Amino acid sequence: MSVNEQKRIVIKVGSGLLVSEEDLNVRYAFLFGLLEDIASLRAKGHEVVLVSSGAAAVGLKAMGVRPSEAGVADKQAAAACGQPLLMAAYKAVASEFDLSIAQVLLTSDDMENRRRFLNTKNTLDRLLDRGLLPIVNENDTVTTEEIRVGDNDRLAAKVAQMIQAQAFIMLTGVEGLYDRNPDDEDARFVEEVSDVSEYIEATKSKSALGSGGMLTKMMAANMAQNGGVETYIASGILERPVTSVLENERRYTRCTAHGDPASAWRVWLADRLNMAGSITLSKDGAKAVREGKIGVRAEDIQSVHGEWAKGDVLHVYDEDGEECARGLTNYSSNEVVLLAKRTGRAVEEVLGYHSNADVIDAGNLVILEEHHLPWAVPEEEATAIEV
């Protein structure tokens, strides 16, 4: 992508670039260079969304708690302290470049619930239309380890999908992706990635990039690829950190888009931040689903994992534990168990009301292709029910 092409761009920056590890203060030199570059991009006609970490890190200093000592409650409280401090820093620097900013705090529910997803998209579209710079962050104050998005890399990728961006740029502490730990003298820099799965094992170590890790960046890149968005991973330098990438002036890793997605609806269905629940199908049932012949039928379900509500997106596995599809369920987990145990009887007879025959309609089902990263089948647990 050339910097002269008018496009939508999502930029993600992490805590390591925004906040000093030593004293937990905002790194104003980086902030100044970043916002100056964004102002330059906007002057060329680009629309930019910034996904920013850093609130909890700044807030920990206000609370007098070191990151190594902070628990979940500490981090939630720190986010409440740090968010206004971080936004004040952004506002002060943005005013130097006549940028008007807007804060957008999101949780995983905002991404996973279709109505809230669309409401968020409408808000971001309106902010961009009005010439503002949206600054997005996970709402750490109200999330917990169980329900949080988990990392701002994937949150940023979902935002890139949401607004149908053309470029997704992750600024990090390293130049990009290596085929193994960068500390290894035989490590080779990877300039372009088509199949992210080839590098998953090589990026599982967090030592290459600190707490976030390159693994989450590969997962985020895959989500962006599936949405038709080009992804760039580069170091967060002080001067022109974004335009120097778009103008090909320095080294970076580019993850190519997988063409134009079939539809925004199918992209939303296929790429999840959290697993609401899952079901395992018989061999024949999974084969028919993969071939696109049918939706998910109650008589093909062998086991149910987790607890979910009607309208959640489920992960669908075959007997061998391979994920084959994801889709919007017509029933809650309790209702699915009842239907699967009483096959051959009408839905109304089992549940007391009339509804769809299929647990997941074929039109609400996305068959996973090779370029999608599959999720491992959940381990057997108390919520796993054999039917």
UniProtKB/TrEMBL annotation:
Residues 277-348 form the PUA domain. GO terms for biological process: L-proline biosynthetic process. It is an enzyme of class 2 (transferase). GO terms for molecular function: ATP binding; glutamate 5-kinase activity; RNA binding. The keyword NADP does not apply. Its EC number is 2.7.2.11. SMART domains: PUA (SM00359). Keywords: Amino-acid biosynthesis, ATP-binding, Cytoplasm, Kinase, Nucleotide-binding, Proline biosynthesis, Transferase. It is found in: Cytoplasm. Gene3D superfamilies: Acetylglutamate kinase-like, PUA domain. Its main location: cytoplasm. Pfam families: AA_kinase, PUA. It comes from the Bacteria. Substrate binds at S53, D140, N152. The keyword Amino-acid biosynthesis applies. ATP binds at K12, S211, G212, G213, M214, L215, T216, K217. It catalyses: L-glutamate + ATP = L-glutamyl 5-phosphate + ADP. Belongs to the glutamate 5-kinase family. NCBIfam families: proB (TIGR01027). Catalyzes the transfer of a phosphate group to glutamate to form L-glutamate 5-phosphate. This is Glutamate 5-kinase. It comes from Parvularcula maris. The lineage of its organism: Bacteria, Pseudomonadati, Pseudomonadota, Alphaproteobacteria, Parvularculales.
